[in-house]
Write a structure and sequence with these properties.
The complex is a heterodimer of chains A (about 525) and B (about 210).
Chain A lengths: L1 H12 L1 H12 L9 H39 L7 H20 L8 H9 L4 H27 L3 H29 L7 H22 L6 H4 L2 H20 L3 H18 L4 H4 L22 H12 L1 H28 L2 H12 L2 H11 L2 H18 L6 H36 L10 H25 L11 H17 L6 H30 L4
Chain B lengths: L1 E11 L2 E12 L3 E6 L1 H11 L7 E8 L2 E2 L6 E3 L12 H11 L10 H7 L16 H15 L3 E4 L8 H14 L4 E4 L4 H7 L2 E6 L2 E4 L2
Parallel strand pairs in B: 3-8, 3-9, 6-7, 7-8
Antiparallel strand pairs in B: 1-2, 1-4, 4-5, 9-10
The chains are: A mainly alpha (about 525), B alpha/beta (about 210).
């Protein structure tokens, strides 16, 4: 077992060293009879190990020490002492964010595939070895970094122990998330974005606003807290090492790697469009007897079978809205009335900047890409005659469906505005926000029409799902320029709403005309 | 119904691909086109409205009037493509719905599938899992359902499975009852097996026929 752990350790550090040691062991060769190859590889492996330690030291210096220096220089009160600041940053960035988002155990790659298939390593041993490897490197790296920054040995040691405890707990969390979702947290974009955004704000923004860091040293260096945490880590660590589902995880991973090499090309654009055929209950719903007809039927089945993809892109946006709302609410609750008034005035005058934000929030481009991959590419390649009238019928159905998704996002954003407005203490004046909320909904409709029109008039995708064509980029660039120009407009929200409404109406009739009459020439495969 | 081609001239830079080519194609026959590859492709492209000819005319005479239009000509794809997220029955339901006006005789989906020996396909099997042969059968089924007036088959792969070739022959024989079919293939044996009348493009002119 010790030898297998050594091979894994070497393989994680340096591929060649690990593989060579493994095959030498398999062929029963003794180390002292090695040739020059081994003598060349060992120093490289040692250097790579030192490099990984240096990376950790650099991380601590860049993300903890330098911010500590900056914040202590900027802020007037002496709320940034070295030990309190390093402890605070470590807890937020490494213990919480790093432990949840960077799973060393389940972050599968080619090396893992080699170890499990070629080297036939026992899955339980493999995953346990990964945990030990990560704990060793993190412990050494962070310990050295703390000592370099000026922490004394006992305090650095305690902090390092807390870090390792959080790593074990983080691995356990990722293991259970993987068990139920077949993904670790870093593979769930919405969750990762939320955790990282929150932790970065809490690490830097929160102390900056409050002029001091939260003092965690009273907990970190308290024996009772440390003992409790060690007991928790022992229990959790024991659970990780005796977990009996590693074989299943390994089989799932290996199957996924093999399927990926056969079914999916290297093109990442196609990989992200893989359809989840089965519902969450695991069954395949058939629509043969559905009452809808024609193009409505086609899109109903498409959106149903593509629900995972639609849900993911919506979820990312909803999480971002939720995180922004939470930050706004925290700022209002933790700050004085003058800050709350500033926040309120920003909300009331937010429409010009919302033109820009709604452009990025729109799910239409992503859904158009998916529809091209699954529906339009085949239709355009086939010899069935494509007419502007047929394209227009598709456009109408898609406008309705995608418009609903964008309006839902707009409503979530409006709810966020109301929540922040209420947190700023202006609950009685919430009605002043109505023009802004109406503008947000109108913008979501506008961008649905705009993006669908650009899709039909500039169709940018090739068969390999690459984007080509200057017209597509030109249209989006022109819209971005308009968005940028809108930031400088000083109209009131009501006037803005009227203009957006008129422009949306004109855009709707113009797009309908263009698609009906010209899309048979423009809507082709690049 | 007949397709009348008169004095078609088509040049590709200095090369004369079609030199006053003319012929009348009738419904109920499968015409095999052979000759120089560039000339064959030029003729097919001109009929399918994918390329313009320099001079001449093409007419599709239906009930005494010319109804030649892009919608009347269907070119058989080399690689049949379908919405891959649908099952075969879902696709047929959709296809029948959108072509209801062009379907003379309505049948059930299972009856249509039986035309092309696909009635035993599992109901949860999506089109993305179909083999090339199954896609070909499904493509022929789509043509049998909508019966285009003019069908151009110029991308048939070399088919080694004799039983499958016989099935294709059966589908084409059924299609020709309501369509004018022009066929060309790189494999002369396949062309001869499938067609009723052989034509050759010789020095830009269409020759041969029965």
């Amino acid at each position: 077992m010790q030898k297998q752990l050594l091979y894994q350790f070497l393989l994680e550090t340096h591929n060649e060293a690990g593989k060579l040691f493994f095959f030498m062991h398999k062929n029963k060769k003794k180390l002292k009879h090695t040739d020059g190859t081994l003598m060349r590889i060992i120093p490289i492996a040692a250097l790579k190990l030192l490099g990984m330690l240096a990376l950790r030291i650099a991380y601590v210096l860049i993300f903890m020490y330098i911010p500590y220096k900056l914040l202590s220089a900027i802020c007037i009160a002496e709320g940034f002492q070295l030990r309190q600041s390093i402890v605070y940053f470590t807890v937020i960035l490494s213990c919480v964010c790093g432990s949840l988002v960077n799973s060393g155990m389940l972050d599968m790659d080619e090396d893992a595939y080699v170890m499990l298939t070629t080297m036939q390593m026992e899955p339980t041993l493999f995953f346990a070895g990964r945990v030990i490897y990560k704990l060793t490197l993190d412990g050494l790296g962070f310990m050295i970094a703390y000592l370099i920054m000026g922490l004394d040995f006992p305090h650095a040691l305690y902090l390092m122990i807390w870090l390792l405890i959080s790593r074990i707990v983080g691995e356990a969390v990722n293991l259970y998330v993987f068990r139920y979702l077949r993904k670790i947290i870093s593979e769930i974009p919405g969750a990762t974005a939320a955790i990282m955004a929150t932790c970065v704000f809490m690490a830097y923004g929160f102390p900056f606003l409050r002029n001091h860091v939260v003092d965690f040293t009273c907990y970190i260096y308290d024996y009772l807290w440390l003992l409790t945490a060690l007991i928790v880590a022992a229990v959790v660590g024991y659970g990780i090492f005796i977990y009996d589902g590693y074989s299943y995880i390994a089989r799932t991973f290996i199957r996924g790697m093999q399927l990926n090499s056969e079914q999916v090309e290297d093109n990442a654009a196609k990989a992200e469009l893989i359809m989840g055929e089965n519902s969450t209950d695991g069954y395949f719903k058939v629509f043969e007897k559905d009452e809808s007809k024609g193009i409505n039927y086609l899109h109903k089945v498409f959106f149903s079978r593509n629900a995972d993809y639609v849900r993911n892109i919506m979820l990312i946006r909803i999480v971002l809205i939720a995180v922004a709302t939470l930050i706004g609410v925290i700022i209002c609750v933790m700050s004085g009335q003058s800050t709350c008034d500033k926040v309120w005035s920003v909300l009331c005058g937010a429409l010009p900047i919302m033109v820009f934000i709604m452009f990025w929030l729109s799910v239409t481009p992503k859904l158009c890409k998916s529809m091209f991959f699954y529906i339009d590419c085949g239709m355009l390649e086939s010899t069935r005659h494509i007419t502007g009238a047929n394209n227009f019928k598709n456009y109408v159905v898609r406008l309705r469906r995608i418009g609903l998704y964008n309006i839902l996002l707009a409503i979530m954003l409006c709810a966020g505005f109301v929540a922040v407005g209420a947190a700023s203490g202006h609950t009685k004046l919430i009605s002043e926000l109505i023009p802004v909320l109406l503008g947000i909904v109108l913008l979501s409709v506008f961008y649905t029409i705009f993006n669908l029109t650009v899709y039909y008039m500039c169709q940018p995708y090739t068969r390999d799902m690459k984007t080509k064509g200057y017209t597509y980029y030109a249209a989006n660039a022109a819209m971005l320029v308009i968005c940028y120009g809108c930031v400088y407009i000083g109209w009131g929200a009501v006037v803005f709403d009227m203009v957006i409404g008129v422009v949306t109406g004109i855009m709707l009739s113009a797009s309908s005309t263009l698609i009906y009459h010209f899309s048979n020439k423009t809507f082709v495969i690049r | 119904m007949r397709l009348v081609i008169r004095d078609i001239v088509k040049r590709n830079q200095d090369e004369l691909l079609l030199d006053k080519a003319g012929y009348t194609f009738y419904q109920g026959k499968v015409y095999g086109i052979s000759g120089k590859e560039k000339s064959r492709r030029a003729l097919m492209a001109c009929i399918a409205f994918e390329d313009r000819y320099d001079s001449g005319s093409m007419e599709l005479i239906c009930a005494g009037r010319n109804c030649m239009a892009p919608a009347m000509v269907v070119r058989f794809p080399e690689e049949p493509a379908f919405p891959e997220f649908l099952t075969v029955r879902e696709f047929l339901k959709y296809y029948i719905d959108i072509n209801r006006r062009n379907i003379a005789e309505s049948k059930t989906i299972d009856e249509y599938l039986a035309y092309v020996e696909l009635e035993h396909v599992r109901s949860d099997r999506m089109l993305k899992d179909f083999t090339w042969e199954e896609r070909m059968r499904l493509e022929f089924l789509c043509l049998l359902i909508t019966a285009p007036p003019v069908l151009l088959i110029d991308n048939l792969r070399s088919i080694s499975n004799v039983d499958f070739l016989k099935d294709i022959k059966r589908y084409i024989d059924r299609l020709k009852e309501s369509s004018i079919i022009l066929l060309e293939s790189t494999n002369n044996a396949v062309t001869v097996f499938l067609c009723d009348e052989e034509l050759t493009i010789n020095n830009g002119c269409i020759q041969g026929g029965v």
